[in-house]
Amino acid sequence: MQVLHISCAGLDVHKDIIVACRRVARGKNTTKEVESFGSTTRELLRLSAWLEETGTTHVVMESTGVFWKPVWNILGDQFELILANPRHVKNVPGRKTDVKDAEWLADLLAHGLVEASFVPDAPIAGLRDLTRTAKQLTRERVQHVQRIQKHLQAANVRLDSVLSDIMGKSGRRIIDAIVGGQTEPRKLAALARGVKATPEQLAEALEGRVSLATRKLIRTHLSIIDALERTLADLEKDIDEALLPFAEAVALLKTIPGLGDGTARVVVAEVGADMSRFKTPGHLVSWAGLCPRMDERRQAALDEDPRRQQVAQVGAVPGRLGGGPVQEARLPPRPVLAASCPTWTRKGHHRSRRVHPHGRPRHPVDAVPVPRPRQQLLRAQGPDPHRRQTHQTPGQPGL
Question: What is the reported pTM?
Answer without folding.
Answer: 0.66
